[in-house]
Design brief:
By secondary structure, the protein is of the alpha/beta class. 33% of the residues lie in helices and 18% in strands.
């Protein structure tokens, strides 16, 4: 059993914490505000940008590993406040290295560290960030790897999965946006020229649970096996729920909130399938992922 401190209690942080607990590890979620979604474990209030706060949290929890999966993660929002995004992501990585130099360090990074001019990117490709969010995450990557060669950087593609609606909360991932909208009979717009390699949050959490306690270091890409446009994926989601796929309407990426994102936010990995820690694990394609999520939405299997 390992003691794991997760800095960030959003969609990915909560599901990762649950998976780590199910694997027998002791987990504490930490963030400025309490988790907004389901979390039955320990939570600690933490402003990780405050000098000394991470040292205090590591000392109080006895953490052997610290996972950074905090915000700001609103890519469009980061474009309007790039200095704040940079200060938060790079700054918290710096505090972690200074205040907890001996712990296992894992950063959940992003496909936005690439410019999206190619159809896909593996770990050998040199980053060229597409936006302020990508620049901030890349800066955090470099801080960690410069200070600790044993750190692990996991770049994820679009993560999706089930999220219940709570008071004052909207859906936070594309699957739920589409599912909620088309099941109410309304139309939803999705770009025809924005490509992703989406990964189910449960699969991402299963992989990370094997890797966080120890093992590989450096940069690792974690993505699903299917490369798909948001429009195509939206139609697949609608069909999997027994809804009219024509409720998903095509738009251009430049016409809306996706305009600041790389056209090809697609990852592939040269390393993932060769890691002995991941023996026996598989990552669902989009059709299988939708089938796994259907029962959570009370949708009869098709």
């Amino acid at each position: 059993m390992r003691q794991v401190l997760i800095i960030g209690s959003g969609f990915i942080g909560r599901r990762l914490g649950q998976a780590l607990r199910e694997a027998g590890h002791s987990v504490v979620l930490s963030s400025r505000h309490p988790p907004e979604g389901p979390w039955a474990g320990d939570w600690r209030g933490l402003d990780a940008s405050r000098p000394g706060a991470i040292a205090e949290a590591v000392g109080a929890t006895g953490a052997h590993a610290v996972v950074l999966v905090h915000g700001p993660s609103d890519i469009t929002g980061c474009e309007s406040a790039p200095e704040a995004a940079m200060a938060t992501h790079a700054g918290i990585a710096t505090h972690l290295c200074q205040e907890a130099p001996t712990v296992r360090k894992v950063l959940i990074s992003t496909d936005n560290v690439f410019d999206g001019q190619d159809t896909g990117y593996d770990e050998s490709r040199a980053p060229s960030p597409a936006n302020a969010y990508g620049r901030a995450k890349l800066a955090a990557e470099r801080v960690l790897l410069a200070a600790d060669p044993g750190a692990l950087i996991v770049r994820t593609s679009l993560v999706y999965g089930y999220e219940p609606r709570g008071p004052g909360r909207g859906w936070r991932n594309f699957f739920m946006v589409v599912a909620d909208t088309v099941r109410s009979g309304q139309t939803v717009q999705a770009p025809v020229d924005h490509w992703n390699t989406p990964i189910l949050v449960d699969d991402a959490a299963a992989v990370l649970t094997r890797l966080i306690p120890g093992g590989p270091s450096g940069v690792l890409h974690l993505a699903g096996p299917d490369r798909v446009s948001r429009f195509e994926w939206g139609r697949l989601i609608a069909q999997s729920l027994g809804q009219d796929p024509n409720l998903v309407r095509p738009v251009a990426r430049a016409a809306g909130r996706y305009s600041c994102r790389p056209a090809n936010a697609c990852l592939r990995s040269l390393r993932l399938h060769h890691l002995p820690e991941l023996s026996g694990l598989s990552i669902s394609g989009l059709a299988a992922g939708a089938a796994r999520l259907g029962p959570l939405l009370d949708v009869p299997p098709r």
